[in-house]
Amino acid sequence: MAPTASIELLPQTLPRSSHSIAVIGDSLYILGGEIQPREPATPFLHSYNLKGNPPSKYGLTADGSIKAHENEAGPSVRVGAASVVVDGKLYLWGGRGGKAMTPLNEEAKFWIYDGQCWSQSSKATGDIPDPRSYHSLAATKVPP
Fold first, then answer.
1. pLDDT tens track for 44-54
2. Is residue 5 part of a domain?
3. Partner of 111 for a Cys bridge, out of 7, 16, 92, 116, CB 3.0 to 4.6 A?
């Protein structure tokens, strides 16, 4: 059987480009991006309940509308960052920011969102990639 796909518009618009999205369970997270060229959008994190269920541990609105997560300690606003979900946590890396919109150098640390709050990983070791933006991330399970 051939795979099928469908597109459903969100009930509320959130115009932007150069953003990242991630899905954890029934929750869609929209991270960063820009509305005007070279001007990062704020707030950095928005969430949307895909099933319209009551609020979950991820703090989504009961009516399924897009919720802005403001005033949270976490990553700076940025465009062109990449995200991936591993074991129910969202990992964010890279992007561009600041007035010059240069690639952000965060010593190869990941920002990690567990649905409640942000934390940052330890500094990476080994072959560390240069700061970058407009890239992608993928995760694979490595056997013990």
1. 898 888 776 65
2. no
3. 92
Q: Report long-range pairs for 121-124 (Cβ below 8 Å, ≥24 apart).
A: 121/91
Return d(Cα 84, Cα 88) in angstroms, integer.
10
Distances 71 to 41, 67, 68 between C-alpha atoms, Å:
14, 13, 10
Q: How many domains does the chain have?
A: 1
pTM, 2 dp: 0.82
- pLDDT greater than 80 at residue 13: no
19, 135 contact by CB (below 8 A): no
Query: Range of 45's domain?
Result: 20-120
Residue type, position 48, single letter: Y
Cβ neighbors of 138 (< 8 A, separation 6 or more) are 84
Q: Mean pLDDT over residues 18-47, rounded?
A: 89
CA distance 47 to 68: 7
- Asked if residue 4 belongs to a domain, the reply is no
Q: Output the CA–CA distances (angstroms, integers) from residue 82 to 11, 26, 61, 104, in the order listed.
A: 25, 20, 25, 12
Pairing of strands 67-69, 45-49: antiparallel
